Inverse folding.
């Protein structure tokens, strides 16, 4: 593949990026061709060493998606993860595997935080409902005041766990974005 067809294919694969960004990327790869020709390499050798222009363009688009996600929703990171899978089978194992594992852990921790808070609420409601339904609800010999404070404590612990999970989830989303970005650069063998 010669320089002209390589840059044309790269330009086409950068669809969806802002024009200014496309011009900078193509100029950067044009510079690689110039530097390679000064070293005496042919255009075909330079094109081979730079890698597949479609994969490179795709990686820049994924990079752009990830940068858009900084400080944004987990949905945008999810789109970037699935876009990364289009770079090859290798990414199904290297990106999807850890992503699913981390997602399972985060969902489990959210479930724990919610269950702690709801159990505290349940204890308080049970103490309140016990005089009305004594045949169905027992306090197990504990004093009702103790159970109310224990329930309030559990509910508060659940709220704190929820706040902690919110912060952890934001951090995990950022780290997944950085991991996907790192993976895209390695898989596409992209310069810059």
């Amino acid at each position: 593949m010669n320089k002209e067809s390589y840059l044309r294919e790269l330009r086409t694969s950068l669809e969806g990026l802002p024009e200014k960004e496309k011009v900078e990327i193509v100029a950067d790869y044009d510079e690689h061709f110039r530097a390679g020709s000064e070293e005496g390499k042919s255009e075909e050798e330079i094109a081979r060493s730079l890698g597949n222009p479609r994969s490179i363009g795709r990686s820049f688009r994924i990079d752009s998606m990830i940068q858009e996600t900084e400080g944004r929703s987990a949905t945008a990171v999810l789109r970037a993860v699935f876009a990364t899978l289009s770079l090859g089978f290798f990414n199904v194992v290297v990106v999807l595997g850890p992503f699913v594992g981390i997602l399972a852990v985060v969902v489990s921790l959210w479930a724990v935080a919610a269950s702690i808070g709801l159990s505290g609420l349940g204890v308080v409601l049970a103490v309140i409902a016990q005089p009305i339904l004594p045949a169905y609800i027992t306090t197990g010999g504990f004093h009702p005041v103790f159970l109310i404070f224990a329930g309030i404590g559990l509910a508060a612990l659940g709220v704190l766990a929820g706040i902690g999970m919110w912060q952890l989830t934001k951090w995990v989303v950022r780290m997944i974005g950085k991991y996907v970005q790192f993976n895209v650069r390695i898989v596409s063998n992209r310069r810059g």
Notes: DSSP finds seven helices and no strands in the chain. Residues 144-188 form the longest helix (45 residues). Helices lie at 3-13, 19-38, 43-50, 53-69, 74-84, 89-129, 144-188. The mean pLDDT is 83.
